[in-house]
Amino acid sequence: MVKDLSRRKFLRNGSLGSASLLLFNLPAWAREITSFIAEGQFAVHNIPADKNLDPAWVRSLYKRTIPSTYFKSLNELKFIGMPAGGLHAGTVYLGGDGRLWLWGIYNDSREGVDPKTVLWNDGTREVSVRNRDGANYVEPTLAANRRVLEQGFAISFDFNWKKITRELKEEDWDEIKFEASYPQATIRYISKGLPVEVVVKAGAIFIPLDADNSALPATVFSINVQNRSTKRLTVSIGGWFENGANKITAKDADGMRQNVASRHNGFASIKGQFLAAKPDASSQRDSGTTCITCMGKDVLINTSATPWPVTTEFFTATSESPAEANPNEKLVSSLVTNNFVEPGAGTETNFILSWHFNHPLLKLDKLPETQQGYYYGKRFRDAAEVGAYIAANFKKLHGNTLLWQKTYYDSTLPHWFLERCLLNIGTLATANTYRFANDRFWGWEGVNACEGTCTHVWQYAQTMGRIFPSLERDARQRTDLGIALQQDGGIIFRAEYESRPAIDGQAGTLLRIYREHQVSADDHFLKTNWPNVKRAAIFMLAQDKNGDGMTDTPMENTLDAVWEGEIAWIVGLCIAAAKATQYMAEEVGDMAFADQCREYVEKGNRNMAEKLFNGEYFIHRPDGVLGKKKLGSYNTCHIDQVYGQSWAWQVGLGRLWDREKTLSALRSLWKYNFAPDVGPYIKTHTGGRPYALAGEAGMVMNTNPKNEPFAYGENMTWQLGYFHECMSGFEHQVASHLMAEGMTDEALILTRAIHDRYHAAKRNPYNEIECSDHYARAMASYGTFISACGFEYHGPNGYIRFAPKWSADNFKAPFTAAEGWGSYSQKRLGNSQVHTIEVKYGILQLSELGFDWKVGLPPRKSVVTAGNEQIAHELSISGTAIRIKLSRKVVVKAGLQMIISIN
């Protein structure tokens, strides 16, 4: 009995462990206990094959509908925290009622956005859950508890001989509606009897392909007030912001806070700073500046506002002289505009809230770059300069942000689907990522958890590579092929924070290099890095010791263990990476190495299909000597088993191994791993972390549908807990593959399961949690969007392709390319179809295009125009795939269209 209690204690504390808990750090008694059978090891597989889903509900997933909207009246605003600042500028959340909260801008080393430990009943017992184990999933952070700085907006007007004042906060309105788009949320404030409608659009400057201007430490608010009365109204719109300088550390003897106002051509601002009386006060991690800026010529300035509660005086008081306060006092400034609004008309005021805290994160002491500060610190002297830069370029910066938002959501794809695919890019706008003064990009796995832009985690993320490809190219060139590259070609999977490669991270990095090459305007990136790319590929190929195209060298993988044998998901990932390397070798003219990679791919494809398929799904074949002594997935159904093929569809590698066996594997994942309610499974299969709870749907990482004894090996270790979890990054990867293979129902259901788990009534919709908050792997979500569009792109070759997975007769969706982005649409009518590519930003260089042809008769005539010019071309068809080869490279500029008509 004593031994059993010890085992339970270990499973509670150990199997809920994380990447930082290594087995050799455990005491001897714990290592001995790991040999005992984990509590869920012999549990009977209990995921129903029949998902019993309502067909009408499944059909509804395809409908366009409206943006996901959360309501005050339904108590859905309290958890909402949309990352509202620029990339790599800390974590500032936009709340459901429009107020900013959290303010994780002070170089805080604590793990997660809200470090805490909570108790969770897993169905069998109560366990202690840390932040990296899902504490914020079990008990989400409340916005009301983390309002570090005083900040807000209010409106005031006279109506029926009364002065009416309303703060833009939950308590002051009958109803608030939060439309959860990204990067700009829309918030609507409604009260009966009021003659005005208030609509706020808020978020960061966010312009795909422009990583510099998307990395501004600021949030923009556009406050629009519509007059619905029959009389002219004078509407005052005011905003206030607390001086946040030295907010955390300052004591009274350290100095004074000071607000300083300034007027400019077209805007006014108030900077909050700290006047240090002691030298060390200016070097604290929270030493810096904050600023509120308001667009307008006649802005009322008050450097010392007292807006609690907001009264008439708030909208009329002015003081442009510097104001000071002791550290133990709040010093708040305000800016107000007065606007005459005719009946039926509206007025809009734009505010910019900015911050600047350019101090190194002490937790990253192994990175010398941190001592130089951050990228935004190099560009701007203080928060006032940030605000002034945005104000001076407001039309361009804010205009392009809104243009992207309109372009992205102007689609025939469902709103909820577009939201879930994109919003995880907000991870880049949290303290999960950094861009140092030397321009180097760097990221955690989750906020302040697990260092080193980890290759075996970040390689799942598809979003940044498509939206901000320059950041990915920097990470490949400077880190993976630079700092992390060993002499033998191995890539240290955490760079400065490790000493070993990870085999899945190695293969995934080669695939990302190919993607980064594709999302480039020319071949400079590939040719510059080819010698190191080749070294890395040679290392990966060498891990196939017996030459059968299936890697069999025990190496670290993303499940924080070293597995023995031939493992389908690792074998397949290496095959895909070898295929990508083959294509890269061909492009640089290294035909001998291309042939070597081709041979590896051919053998691997053949042997994987023949030797690692058990009749239903792909498996882990045990090592010939060690057998199943160590932890592994073996004959179980593993979520990543055909991950290599999933990656292949993302970068246009085509079909790798046997199609029918791949589809069988996906059907098995659906049958054995997807649970409409994970509750019964996690109650019997204990030890996993709570990333999906009873009553919620999800795809479990690894299941034992055949109920084999010792299915996961004979020697149980803490990593077994991973097998019983639902980690959204892996689920997104499977969803993207299901979509690519035409299993659209399953793809949408799985994506919707994640979307519903993060409904605002339950937790923050913008924070997909794994090992800590805003987990990088969740950016795999954009891959499902890529698959839904059937999108392929190769910038250096000038090639683009679209093949929508549904609604192909009338389809519209956005796209991003190397130098521009825009909108694609296609329409089919009778024996003709028309494809339109409209560039909204930048340019798009094209030499070849691809589409699908669904009409029964072969195409006989095609016309291609760019602007007003007709372009000569050749058309060919293979099966249903159409290729349009242009007679020359065509540059389509912003505002122009290329139209392809086929009959």
TrEMBL record:
Residues 81-396 form the Glycosyl-hydrolase family 116 N-terminal domain. Residues 504-782 form the Glycosyl-hydrolase family 116 catalytic region domain. InterPro entries: 6-hairpin_glycosidase_sf (IPR008928), 6hp_glycosidase-like_sf (IPR012341), GH116_catalytic (IPR006775), GH116_N (IPR024462), Non-lysos_glucosylceramidase (IPR052566), TAT_signal (IPR006311). It holds the Pfam family DUF608. GO terms for biological process: carbohydrate metabolic process. GO terms for molecular function: hydrolase activity, hydrolyzing O-glycosyl compounds. Gene3D superfamilies: 1.50.10.10. Residues 1-30 form the signal peptide. Keywords: Signal. PANTHER family: BILE ACID BETA-GLUCOSIDASE-RELATED, NON-LYSOSOMAL GLUCOSYLCERAMIDASE. This is Glycosyl-hydrolase family 116 catalytic region domain-containing protein. It comes from Flavihumibacter solisilvae.
